[in-house]
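2024-03-11 09:14:02 DEBUG pipeline.ingest accepted 1 chain
2024-03-11 09:14:02 DEBUG pipeline.ingest length=250
2024-03-11 09:14:03 DEBUG pipeline.predict start
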Amino acid sequence: MLKLLNVESKQQSMSVSLLQKGVVMMSMFRSVLPRVTRSNGWRCFSTGIPYDDIAELNKEMESIFGESPSSSPLGSSPPQQPVQPAYEAEDSQPVLTHTDRSGQAKMVDVSPKEDSKRVAIASCRVLLGQKVFNLVASNEIAKGDVLTVAKIAGITGAKQTSNLIPLCHNINLSHVRVDLSLNEEDSSVVIEGEATTSGKTGVEMEAMTAVAIAGLTVYDMCKAASKDICITDVCLQHKSGGKSGSWSRN
């Protein structure tokens, strides 16, 4: 019986000590809150209470109640640093330059770039079929000289690229070349276009627009003779100049 009284007395004494420490700790807690720091959009709270005192208080509570207190702002574990959102480096993978971070379309600002000579060559084919090919070769198409009209259309198209492709820059072209030739092997018109400028952005789109418009013009000139005409293989063959330097398909 006496031993049991001694145990109860000890527990009461520890409870009083615990209560006193708790009052002191709460007083310290109130005196330092709120202390807020902001960093990169994150909000953090700090109590300023020594972790050793918190750990000692938790041990006494465990000896009395038989279990560790649940995690709380006064827990013994140091506060975890907030995890900052990770962004991949822009140079780690190819990116679409005509979209912003929210996915909206934008026109690229080329003002920081340096001027350099830029050249681009593109090509395409127009599959005519044997019947139409013979008519074009003999210049018997009702609308007139197919190859000459398509050549002029291609040059005009290159100069109108920024009006046709909404996010292209308005470039001062120094030279545009469009050549058309007949290929007997597959009864086609082979078209090659070249665009040149000295400026801050490339002329790949101007070269490809030139051959595409020339190909469409061939179709328009010949469509009365056949609807099977096919425009195919519109692609860039070569470019040079600018930060990325030279590139060739072959």
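2024-03-11 09:14:41 DEBUG pipeline.report The helical segments are 2-32, 51-65, 130-137, 146-159, 161-164, 204-222.
2024-03-11 09:14:41 DEBUG pipeline.predict end
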